[in-house]
C-alpha cells in the first residue's frame, strides 16, 4: 500500500535539547496507526512537526509522497492533513450543524460571504448533516455547541476536522477528559470512519490503543524505539521495560 504520511530523519532541537531525534515514519494509506510513548517522549512535538505548527531543525515530512515540510499549516490542511482542535475555539452560540456547515463552506472557499448563492449553503448543510450522521451526532444537530456534553464535543471536533475532507486525520488524545464508559463508545465511532481516511492516533490509554491500532510506533526520548503490530509491541521486551519497568 502506498504511503499516506512519511517523515524522513526528522529532528527538532529546542536550544541544546533534542525533542525529536531522527524520526522516520512510514504510515500506509488507510492505516489505523498509533504513536505512543511515556511523558516527554516527544509525541506532541512530533504532531506539531507533522501539522506544520513547528518547523523541524532538519528532516522532512511527506504527505502522499509530496514534500510538505515547508508548507504552512493551512496549506497542509488543504492538501489533506487535518487534526482536531479544542471546541472552545468555536463560536459558542452556533449550533452543531451550523458549525460543521461553516467548516464545509470554509473548505469550499465559500467563507461567510453572504452573497453566495443560497443553494451552495444548502449543499454545505447537507454535507454537514452527513458528517453528523457518520458520527452519531444528528440528535444534537440543533443544539448550541456549548451545550454539548464533553464526550459529544470531542466527536464534534472530529466532525469539524472531517469537514476539511482529510486524507490523514491526526487525533491527539481524542478521549482526553471523557469518562471511561463514553471513551469506549467514542473509539468505536472513530473505528467506523471510512478507510479513505488514514488515522494517526496519539493516546496514552493503552487499552484504547491496543483495541484501535493496527500498527504502533513507540517513541522514547524523541526517537523511535519500536514499530510493529499491537501483538508484537505488547511482547517487545524493550517496550515492556519502558512502560512496566521490567
Ligand atoms: P510528549 O507529548 O510525548 O509528552 P513532548 O513533545 O511534549 O512529549 O515533549 C518532549 C520533550 O521536549 C520534553 O522534555 C519537553 O520538555 C521538551 N519540549 C517540548 N516543547 C519544548 C519547547 N518549546 N522548548 C523546550 N523544550 C520543549
TrEMBL record:
PROSITE patterns: ABC_TRANSPORTER_2 (PS50893). Pfam families: ABC_tran, BCA_ABC_TP_C. CDD domains: ABC_Mj1267_LivG_branched. One of its GO terms (molecular function) is ATP hydrolysis activity. One of its GO terms (cellular component) is plasma membrane. Keywords: ATP-binding, Cell membrane, Membrane, Nucleotide-binding, Transport. Transmembrane segments: none annotated. Residues 5-246 form the ABC transporter domain. This is Branched-chain amino acid ABC transporter ATP-binding protein. It comes from Candidimonas nitroreducens.
Amino acid at each position: 500500500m502506498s504511503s499516506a504520511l512519511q517523515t524522513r530523519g526528522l529532528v527538532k532541537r529546542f536550544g541544546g535539547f533534542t525533542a525529536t531525534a531522527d524520526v522516520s515514519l512510514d504510515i500506509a494509506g488507510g492505516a489505523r496507526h498509533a504513536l505512543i510513548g511515556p511523558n516527554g517522549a516527544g509525541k506532541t512535538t512530533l504532531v506539531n512537526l507533522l501539522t506544520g505548527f513547528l518547523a523541524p531543525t532538519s528532516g522532512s515530512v511527506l504527505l502522499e509522497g509530496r514534500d510538505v515540510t515547508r508548507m504552512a499549516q493551512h496549506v497542509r490542511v488543504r492538501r489533506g492533513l487535518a487534526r482536531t482542535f479544542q471546541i472552545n475555539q468555536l463560536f459558542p452560540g452556533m449550533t452543531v450543524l451550523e458549525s460543521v456547515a461553516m467548516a464545509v463552506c470554509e473548505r469550499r472557499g465559500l467563507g461567510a460571504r453572504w452573497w453566495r448563492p443560497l443553494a451552495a449553503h444548502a449543499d454545505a448543510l447537507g454535507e454537514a448533516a452527513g458528517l453528523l450522521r457518520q458520527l452519531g451526532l444528528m440528535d444534537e444537530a440543533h443544539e448550541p455547541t456549548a451545550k454539548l456534553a464533553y464526550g459529544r464535543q470531542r466527536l464534534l471536533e472530529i466532525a469539524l476536522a472531517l469537514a476539511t475532507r482529510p486524507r490523514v486525520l491526526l487525533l491527539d488524545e481524542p478521549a482526553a477528559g471523557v469518562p471511561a464508559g463514553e471513551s469506549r463508545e467514542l473509539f468505536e465511532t472513530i473505528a467506523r470512519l471510512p478507510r479513505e481516511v488514514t488515522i494517526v492516533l496519539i493516546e496514552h490509554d493503552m487499552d484504547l490503543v491496543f483495541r484501535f491500532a493496527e500498527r504502533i510506533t513507540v517513541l522514547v526520548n524523541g526517537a523511535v524505539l519500536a514499530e510493529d503490530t499491537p501483538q508484537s509491541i505488547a511482547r517487545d521486551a524493550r517496550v515492556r521495560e519502558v512502560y512496566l519497568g521490567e
